[in-house]
Design goal:
Arc Repressor Mutant, subunit A; Beta-Lactamase; 48% helix; elongated; 271 residues; 2 domains; three-stranded antiparallel β-sheet
């Protein structure tokens, strides 16, 4: 992208809209200015313009600004246009090239996972799988991510239904151990399958969220055993999580974008 043609006022307006889209739904002018490292008068003028367009609304009693109906209308139009597979495909392609492994996209289907899409490893040696194929939830990294982030009651119900079949000597077949593993996945934000479904295959997966923050799918990198437990593990985990977050943002999940806007304006100000 040629940054010479960027319009600063539009970039700042975009940063303000992202700021107002965070969990804290409303801010005073000073709060927005502080978060985005803008001066108060600039922030006021942009908010006034956004209010005129219907993208923000001002509470006359508190003086706080929040997103308006115009922002909702545009967001809704975007969500109607973008579906999961469409949003994920280019990011999956890029991830596969970056890590040189097979990338999968999966959702929950009953008590199993369903592979929605796949990008084969650029190397000749890859993981054998098919789009539309189903797999177990308890011993795949994809399944564990999808199980871990279910609401508590749904997870308990699922745990009562699934059969903890052993596929390799490493497969977890104890409900107690699996529960501990799922709690760990929820805390750390990713899951590992260390040769639990295939003897020589490892998998690292991360959650994909919709615009409401609900985990609706999982993204994974799979390949021959050589990463988990080595110095490469941290790098692959980072790449998978970043890719999953990027897909989530394309689906309307905006957590973390406010911080990106802050960093961008901070760097611009320093220059």
């Amino acid at each position: 992208m040629n940054e010479r043609y960027l319009i600063n006022s539009i970039l700042r307006a975009g940063g303000i809209l992202k700021c107002l889209s965070t969990e804290r739904a409303s801010f005073k002018i000073s709060g927005v200015a502080r978060r985005l490292h803008l001066d108060r008068s600039t922030t006021y003028r942009i908010l006034l313009s956004l209010e005129k367009c219907g993208f923000v609304e001002k509470d006359e009693k508190t003086g706080e600004y929040a997103l308006g109906l115009g922002a909702f209308e545009i967001g809704s139009a975007y969500l109607r246009r973008v579906d999961l597979a469409q949003a994920a495909k280019p990011i999956m392609d890029a991830l596969s090239l970056k890590v040189q492994e097979t990338v999968h996209l999966a959702i929950l289907s009953g008590t199993e996972i369903l592979y929605l899409d796949k990008v084969d490893s650029p190397r000749s040696l890859g993981v054998i799988s098919k789009i539309g194929q189903r797999g177990p939830v308890h011993c795949t990294a994809l399944g564990r991510v999808l199980l871990a982030f279910l609401p508590a009651e749904e997870r308990l119900g699922m745990m009562d239904q699934i059969r903890l079949q052993a596929f390799t000597p490493r497969t977890i077949t104890s409900k107690k151990k699996l529960t501990r593993e799922l709690n760990q996945v929820q805390r750390q934000g990713f899951a590992l399958d260390n040769r639990e479904i295939e003897e020589d295959v490892e998998c690292i997966a991360a959650p994909i969220r919709d615009h409401l923050g609900k985990v609706i799918a999982a993204l994974s990198v799979s390949g021959p055993q050589k990463k988990i437990g080595t110095i490469l593990e941290r790098r692959v985990v980072k790449e998978v999580r970043n890719a999953a977050s990027l897909i989530s943002s394309r689906l309307g999940y905006l957590e973390g974008l406010e911080k990106m806007a802050e960093n961008k304006y901070s760097r611009r100000k320093e220059r």
